[in-house]
Request: fold
Amino acid sequence: MKPALVVLIFSVAALAAGYANPASDDPLRLPNEKHLRNIRQLSNGGENAEAYFSGDGKQLIFQSTRDGRACDQIYIMNIDGSDVRMVSTGKGRTTCSYFYPNGKRITYSSTHLANADCPPKPDFSKGYVWAIYPGYDIFSARPDGSDLKQLTKTQGYDAESVISPNGKKIAFTSTRDGDLDIYTMDIDGKDVKRLTSEVGYDGGPFWSYDSQWIVFRANHPKSEKDKAEDCI
Reply:
């Protein structure tokens, strides 16, 4: 595969906030929603997030805090919301799940090897915070959760993993070299390569359809004041 080209996004505008919505005969259209139609609620109760389609479009994989659990685990369900089942270990905290393109395996990050208990919740008193737990490692498993394999073993946060459409590479975010940067590795965890090196946050990578480009979020502080604010 040719070296992946990297595209850097500095900001994303919210498209659907604050617009007046004209009268609509669509019963599933949300009030004040200008852009989206035919919206269907697939989950009820708990906290549910980061859902991604399987390659054949028949299932969704997502993280959820439900069933009386103290923090997120990984679940799979049909695209109509039926047949919900947990596929992670039930230990630690999990995030960033994804289907392999052929549907034969999944990947997600978990802290269960560092500690079977949920890690402490971050302080949200000053706004939303994404916790960079150093116990996160990336794992792969069969879609039923069996045959769990650890893909990263380096000290530090390893998460936000996504698989290239050709099924050959995984892009992810890691603090293994002391800063939040983007890396790629083979589907089995080998041949790890660092793609970014600027000080600051580089995360949330995503592949283009031809598996040759990566888009990601970034925040690179330019002053000591900016650095201090980024740590809040």
